[in-house]
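Morning. Coffee machine broken again, so started the prediction first thing and wrote up yesterday's gels while waiting. Chain of 257 residues, entered below exactly as on the submission form.
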Amino acid sequence: MRQMTKDLEEKPIEKEEDDRLDLRSMSRKDRRKRKKEKLEETIKDMTPKEKRSYLLYYYKEAIIITIIAIIAVSYIGYNVYRGTRPITISYVVLNCKDALNFNSKAIDDYAKAIDKYDGYQIKADTSIEIKKDEYTKDYEHNANSQKYINFTTMATAHYYDVVFTDMEGGIYCSSTDVFYPLDKYLDQDRYNRVKDRIVTAEGMDGKTGEYMIDISDTELAKALNVGYDKVYVGFAGDQQDNHDRVNDFIDYLFPAK
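Came back before lunch.
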């Protein structure tokens, strides 16, 4: 590879000067024929090494373009493949204290534990900060209004299955109908498994409802390294796929006895 790179960069010594034949008046077929003849004539007395240097240098643009095309096609193909794989979980972490040190491996371990890692994809977002006081500011006086709009739009579009959050983020999600009430969202069996962990908050209608589950003492919550001690989850997606993935999540954290 090193020698090939050198050959691409360094112009080889030619055996003859180019005769500067004007090919513009020829047909495309004749031009190709003449170029082939000229190439054969030029390299016929070269050593194998000289021939390689000559061909690499004078065809370097085609070689580089081909390499770039191969890389591009491979990259696109890989991303298309990734995008079509089934989803293990789509989650968001609100108010993560240090997104760079968030331990996503804990989610990978979860996917492996439920046998949905190889051939699956995990969707994640750990960069969203939610502050109730900031949200309640007038739109025109809130420089960060767009982030609330973006997050709420994604949530209401059923993009997220599980929302990991502190209390501040949980209050925001409950009061804006991002979270679905747990007594209506979970089936009776799974609801009974978590009922002693349920945290209430005020909904958009001003009434207190059951919107969050305290998972602070679970190994998963401790491993995530979100930067706060009390970790809650709520559920923002209401399509069947969202429910199936939430059921996997509940079954993992709180298995049926």
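The CA atoms of residues 89 and 245 lie 6 Å apart. Going to sketch it on the whiteboard this afternoon.
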